[in-house]
Write a structure and sequence with these properties.
2 domains; seven-stranded parallel beta sheet; alpha/beta; single chain; 13 strands; Rossmann fold; about 350 residues; binds (2R)-2,3-dihydroxypropanoic acid; about 35% helix
Amino acid sequence: MVRAVSVHTYHGTAGKEGLMAPRVYVTRVIPRAGVDRLQQAGFDVDVNEGDVPLRQDDLVEKARSYDALVTLLTDRVDRRVLEAAASADLKIVANVAVGYDNVDVAAATDLGIPVTNTPGVLTETTADFAWALLMSVARRVPEAEQFFRAGKYHGWGILMLLGEDVHGKTLGIAGFGRIGQAVARRAAGFDVKILYYDPVLGPDVGKPFGAQHVELDTLLRESDFVSVHVPLTPETRHLISTQQLQLMKPTAYLINTSRGPVVDEGALVEALRAGIIKGAALDVFENEPLAHPGLLELTNVVLTPHIASASRETRDRMATTAADNAIAALQGRRPPNLVNPEVWTERK
Ligand code: DGY
């Protein structure tokens, strides 16, 4: 279905001495704080107020017509978009997310286009949510809530809606970067043993958290809860598939707040149906906004619509961080969160 794109323009003042103000295109509604920041820097800002991702042809057209693009993870910033951008000397693609698997960074680098993300500002909020999912699936919170609303609670029962304890268990964190570490920090109050797997970071990183560095297979075999916090790259696509799920305990739970394709959803459905693992809590999916139909039929899963970073404060910070990156690039300064810094070195 083709939907109308309504664009609102916020006029800046950078061009007031006769020059055109640089023009920024925001591909979808973002928190107002981000637009204000861009406008206060003097730029003309057009926002796709429709809050629906642009069609690919429209995105190409915007890339060709503006000085900066502020994009969201629902935009596919592919080589075609980037070639259009390069032909028009676009100064930056400022993605409003820490993840940037929606941007062809290799192509952007070839074409000399800086790409930025929003690291740091959503770490704690995402870690909070990973714990919310972990607790929800272990203690069957959504199931219990539905049970209550359906009028099925007719009196307390000693065997009613039994879940699993979280305290005293083993938590396996796959990917021990900023968010993985923030998840580990929260574990202290639950007196859990922490294992972590990270192909880049070694054993020392875990020491302040009392966390032990292990190989992925060991983590899967020994953990009661496995929480995934890796970026999506060709190496991490289907990091968790049939073979890995089979290593997990039949009493274990999988939590994913990273990117959907890190987990092979078909294999997960099979594992959940067959009792290979006990349950899963997922905030991200292989083909968003769709989930594997099998997931929707299972009661031992908790499903949320990619909201791990969705607090008002954090979404404001993501928008202003992306705006700051765009402002820096448009003012000829190095953007603080470049994911392809080699492009900037070349530009000096
Ligand atoms: C990100 O930033 O990459 C999250 O998935 C959305 O907040």
